[in-house]
């Protein structure tokens, strides 16, 4: 029975543990994201992201021109990477909106 409760406590910890906010990502976190979400282009461009010290804060600010200036000249590759960056931004924005709603609801709860 002790084992079951420890398993349940581990599960609850897992549920409440959230991934690190994109804005706090290190260069290594960005490399991991690039490998996972842009795997077709990772071997071609990981060094460009490294040379430009792209952290999470920089990643969400990148646009098509930035990618071009970084040396990603193939339009198809740029568009694919840009699409993944936009998805990441959207996910980060959704998390932030949910946090704001939770805080708003918490502070306005039957005070």
From TrEMBL:
Segments crossing the lipid bilayer: none
Gene Ontology biological-process entries: cell surface receptor protein tyrosine kinase signaling pathway
CDD domains: SAM_aveugle-like
GO cellular component: cytoplasmic side of plasma membrane
InterPro entries from the UniProt entry: Aveugle-like_SAM_dom (IPR039144), SAM (IPR001660), SAM/pointed_sf (IPR013761), SAM_domain-containing_protein (IPR052268)
One Pfam family of this chain: SAM_2
Annotated ranges, domain SAM: 25-91
SMART domains to which the protein is assigned, alphabetical: SAM
Protein name per Swiss-Prot or TrEMBL: SAM domain-containing protein
């Amino acid at each position: 029975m002790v084992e079951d409760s420890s398993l349940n406590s581990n599960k609850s910890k897992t549920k409440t543990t959230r991934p690190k906010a994109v804005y706090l990502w290190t260069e290594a976190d960005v490399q991991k994201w690039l490998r996972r979400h842009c795997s077709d282009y990772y071997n071609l461009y990981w060094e460009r992201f490294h040379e430009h010290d792209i952290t999470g804060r920089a990643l969400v600010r990148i646009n098509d021109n930035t990618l071009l200036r970084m040396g990603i000249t193939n339009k198809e590759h740029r568009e694919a990477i840009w699409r993944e960056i936009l998805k990441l931004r959207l996910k980060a924005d959704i998390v932030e909106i949910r946090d704001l709603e939770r805080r708003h609801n918490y502070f306005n709860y039957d005070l």
